[in-house]
Give the backbone structure.
Amino acid sequence: MRLTEISYAEARPIDGYGPGFFRVNDHVLRGPSLVTPWDAGPWGGLEDLATLLDLAGRIDVLLLGMGKEIAYPPRALRADLEAAGIGVEPMSSPAACRTYNMLLSEGRRISAALLPLG
């Protein structure tokens, strides 16, 4: 079997996660976090729509990690993001981390807004 090494170029993959934290590019982020190919840092959570709307034109899809379990995001949040041209894919935060890394390795225009796991 042939294995292929994954390359992220200069983008920042998610290295790990656990209760209350995400590790990106060897930095630990505590609480809700926003991860983009060019940056990673704190995010204000589901009420912080402005930070997500600032991604319009830079990403095509936002992976919305809803915590330990999948949940539906507020309808207004989803509608406003889609009106700005950003597709929204809600899932559990662990699934969002894995999906982000896979799509990032393919060079996709994505970001992950992540709620912590408890």
User: Anything to note?
Assistant: Helices lie at 49-53, 75-83, 93-105. Strands lie at 14-18, 21-24, 27-30, 33-35, 40-42, 61-65, 87-91, 110-114.
